[in-house]
Amino acid sequence: DTEVTQTPKHLVMGMTNKKSLKCEQHMGHRAMYWYKQKAKKPPELMFVYSYEKLSINESVPSRFSPECPNSSLLNLHLHALQPEDSALYLCASSPPSFYEQYFGPGTRLTVT
Amino acid sequence: RKEVEQDPGPFNVPEGATVAFNCTYSNSASQSFFWYRQDCRKEPKLLMSVYSSGNEDGRFTAQLNRASQYISLLIRDSKLSDSATYLCVANTGNQFYFGTGTSLTVIP
User: Rounded CA gap, B52 and A99, in Å?
Assistant: First the structure.
């Protein structure tokens, strides 16, 4: 089973709202990732969790706040977003180190 | 300089054709490489992993040349369903570096 699930599939939020994106994997992977993808661009790395610890934060604005409650779950808390934050948010997981990543279906976020 | 560079295309090829994509990477410490395909408005899906010199899976062949720091993907006997964007990815430790993607359209 190489499944990564994400909820919700679609999210529309205002600039003053607070919402969370959720990601889950049951493959025993120890690295999990958040990516942001704009149309016709490759995924852009936001955060990496390795063994439930934040190991990489790619200078993401503080209005995005990641959380890794356990080895299977990854959340992305959103607060006071801007319209330019509208994008597809992808979660991925991989075994440690240099093995392949598996992506979830993404959450398509629209900020109004 | 970008970590991974790909020709964005687009590549428009007839059904049954053979098409090759190339990708170069700048970090000689990169340990493993991947090709993903991404359909419009969908997530990237793993197509092939390349850990040593190459890999073959049916109509798809990936080659790695560490000396020249490039990876290639060959698709033989193209099908309409192969139309997608193909992303080249290099891994260094916990970091994955994506190319910009190559767009392929297979024409009937």
Answer: 13
| Interface test with chain B among A98, A101, A107, A109, by most B beta carbons within 10 Å | A98
Residue bearing tokens 């890999």: B55
- Of A42, A96, A108, nearest to B98 by CB-CB distance is A42
DSSP state of B59: T
**Distance linking the first and last C-alpha atoms of chain B:** 38
- Nearest-5° Cα angle at A99, B44 to B9: 35
Q: pLDDT tens track of chain A, all 112 residues?
A: 569 999 999 999 999 999 999 999 999 999 999 999 999 999 999 999 999 999 888 889 999 999 999 999 999 999 999 999 999 999 999 987 568 999 999 999 999 9
Closest CB to A56 among B46, B87, B94: B94
- Do B5 and B23 meet the contact criterion of CB atoms below 8 Å apart? yes
Which residue from B minimizes the CA distance to A51? B94
As a whole number of angstroms, the distance between CA A12 and CA A85 comes to 11
User: What is the rounded end-to-end Cα distance, in angstroms, of chain A?
Assistant: 37
